[in-house]
Amino acid sequence: MFQRFLSLAVALLLGVSVYAQSDLKAVYLRCEYKINPVTDVTQPRLSWELTSAVTSQYQTGYQILVATSVALLEEGKADLWDSKKVTGETTSQIEYAGKPLESRQICYWKVRSWDKKNVPGSWSEPARWEMGLLQKNDWKASFIGLNLNHLGKGKEYHLPPAPFLRKEIDVKGPIKKARLYVTALGLYEFQINGRKIGNDYLTPGWTDYNKRLYYQTFDVSKDLKLGKNALGSILSYGWYAGYLGYALLVRNPVVKNFYGDVPALKAQLEIEYTNGQKETIATDNTWKANYGPIVESDILNGEVYDANKELTGWNQTGYNETAWKKVITVSEKAERLFQSFPGDPVREVARLTPKNIKQIGAKAYLIDMGQNFAGIIKVRFKAAKGDSILFRFGEMLYPDGKLMTENLRKARGTDLYIAKGDPNGEIYEPRFTYHGFQYVQVEGLQNGLGMQDILGLVLSSATPKAGTFETDNAFVNQLYHNIIWTQQSNYLEVPTDCPQRDERLGWTGDAQAYVKSATLNNDIAAFGTKWVADLNDAQLPNGAYPLYAPAPSVRKTDTYSPGWMEAGIVYPYQIFRSYGDTRIIKTHWSEMKKFMQFLETKSKGEYVFKETAFAEVDPKGGFGDWLSVGKKTPPDMLATMYYAYSAQLMQEMALAIGDENEASHFKEINAKVKAAFLKHYTNAEGRFICNAAAYGDGRGYVDGEQGFEGHTQTAYANAIFMNLLDSTHTLKAAKWLNELVVKNGNKLTTGFLGVRPMLPVLSNTGYSETAYKLLFQKEYPSWGFEIQNGANTIWERWNSFTKEGGFPAGMNSFNHYAFGSICEWMFENMAGIKETSPGFKTFLIQPEPMNATINSLKATHRSVYGSITSAWQKKGDLITMTIEVPVNTTATICLPPTPTNNITFNGKALVASTVKPKWINRRERNTVTVGSGKYVLSYKKSALSGF
Ligand code: BGC
């Protein structure tokens, strides 16, 4: 303080500018994408955002200090790492390069940045990270459990009770620091003195348990008390030993216990006393086990809870555990990795109160939660001892008001509570399960249910919100709402297809088609990093990426499919593009190359997949343009396009990690595939063709009986999107694409693979008006059709419900994000925020304010550099654009095709010399490039001729 005063006085005396300090400040400090995390990454990456009131501000250098204590950090004594001043604009994912870090080490860090004038800003507030357990031998704990498999009674579902484990310990003195490292084969809840530790659900998460297992670290310093403490844990079967996917439905020889059959806990409590003594309490054979009220417990099938079997006091000290059994220890697999959970934990992210409760029988009620979501209920009621209260869950009602549950297929998806008859009422909230639902049917409730008696706990992986999108058009807002809720319901531990039926698998095709949309709505960097590891763990021996990950095959014949397997390339690529993450590329490079080798071998040196090339998989050709309408785009044609696209992405990723050789290799592959594609799948005119006869009667192919055709919306949209065509051919193809849509009454024929590129391609080739017609289409198949039929999430099928036809049976979900990939177009075209370099270091602002029914729109996206805003408003003839550009980034604003002297820029006439023509989306456009700040542009609509 005194020093500062002194320098101020000296500065004043000398008459120099008072503070030689910039207002540039680092905020939102993150380590491995998280705020103050525990990580076991030995060179964790540090990131921050910058704030400054100065326009066009950017960073010219930074300095990071890392110390072993806050005090040292404050004094500027970086005993772990002083990066010294590093010149450059990088603010994201800077690898720690200080002293080697040890298990359990706590690192405090701060950063300051130099501004565009090379003046330093002040230091950031301190942040921290903590190292997890880096060595296998840091683990002293054994896996312990209780085998209750003989108690599974059900006929169709064999569901044993949930084991309870306990141990009392002595805390010998005041605690300086206490950490709980905990994981399980299966699912665990850990309690200390009766309180659940942490807010996470479904821990430790889903991985290929044979290869890796994640653990959580909790600071439990405040949960322990001097003297006796009770440690307790409830286990469940989870993804490890429970039912998975549709194994039961398809009569797979194995329907559960895919990884093992006895859930087991591995936990160690490490206490450091203020006197310096350390103590580790680890799970071992001195723990006791029993089972109690959780009679059945399964993610897909739900819970049975008998309150009469509660083990009152089991999680407190002084409990009489003589009836409890000795635990069994489960042996360790030497090759299994133990790692700190890298993703975002599943948490309660919102709470819903019911919209309506209707009595439907003597003791039965139907509750409308007002929104389809993934989660559980928390409910309070009075009941007599022994009353069975059954909760069923469904997404939709039949026209006669009855609950529809058929689409859950073999997922029993019910919770059952057997009351103890507490005169004060009972509260029930199931564990270790979740459901996808809007409606809850309760049966067996004698005393009714008030609106305040039931809550919907919305569960999702807690990926930080990164996007907002709002217009003055209720329909568009509803669509965005549906997208957000569907993403939230399905970004749940892994990117699942749907949260309700006997599936909930990390389907790779859905994931790759939707991932870019996902990044616009939420920061999925950590979630995606975790899932890409799952995906690579699941790579098949031949190099193909599987249909879903993680998961063993839940159907024997499930292998790989074009359009699905490329998730192994597309998903990490998107993490790289959205966040500028190159480590994900390096980490998985050899596996991605193995996949590219698989494609090369598979194409037999021809670099094209001709008709029937994938006849060996089931269904033949793979899933193709899944759930499309009408004639099928040949799956092999799509496979070839995806091959070219994968090579293109590999080329780009190789350049990003500085591997020129690999880049030119994949460039060559890309060129070869393009040439072979054109030769085989186009005619002299450039129209897309295929040899439909090769597929015979189409049997064995998805919707093969509908016949195959090359000249389809899906084919052109993908070919243009994936850059398979030169510029003249692109224009031709775009014209055909537009014609196909118009001739079809401005309706789509696209399925999962066709939807994603559809609107972006139309807009980017000059057919935005058609894109808007598709957006606003209300007839089947369209988003509008779903919304008109009451959708509040995105449906799996265009016709998941029709007033005339009801619900198609078999496979039908109302919460499936694949068709939500229109989100990408909403942000990139309607709002016009488009990244042009990884992490949005540079981006375009090119909105399309052309539709008469939208008068205002505002979208924001929080990139790794900070929040970007693009908003536009139409008032009479005047269009106003408001743009916010984060510090350290550059935006290129595309001007409307109106004489530039008609444009007002920040209240003044636009200065002509700032306008630069640029080639964007195949057209030369006038642009203004700006640095950080807020900009307002306005112009008269009358001068517009398409934007
Ligand atoms: C899933 C999908 C998935 C598909 C494969 C379905 O059962 O729900 O979304 O991609 O199978 O075609």
From TrEMBL:
GO biological process, one term: carbohydrate metabolic process
Start and end residues of each Alpha-L-rhamnosidase six-hairpin glycosidase domain: 465-830
EC class: hydrolase
EC number: 3.2.1.40
Domain Alpha-L-rhamnosidase concanavalin-like: 359-459
Start and end residues of each Bacterial alpha-L-rhamnosidase N-terminal domain: 175-347
Keywords for this protein: Glycosidase, Hydrolase, Signal
Family matches, as Pfam families: Bac_rhamnosid, Bac_rhamnosid6H, Bac_rhamnosid_C, Bac_rhamnosid_N, Ig_Rha78A_N
Domain Alpha-L-rhamnosidase C-terminal: 832-904
UniProt xrefs under InterPro entries: 6-hairpin_glycosidase_sf (IPR008928), 6hp_glycosidase-like_sf (IPR012341), Alpha_rhamnosid (IPR016007), Bac_rhamnosid6H (IPR035396), Bac_rhamnosid_C (IPR035398), Bac_rhamnosid_N (IPR013737), Ig-like_fold (IPR013783), Rhamnosid_concanavalin (IPR008902)
Single annotated GO MF: alpha-L-rhamnosidase activity
Residues spanning the signal sequence: 1-22
Protein name: alpha-L-rhamnosidase
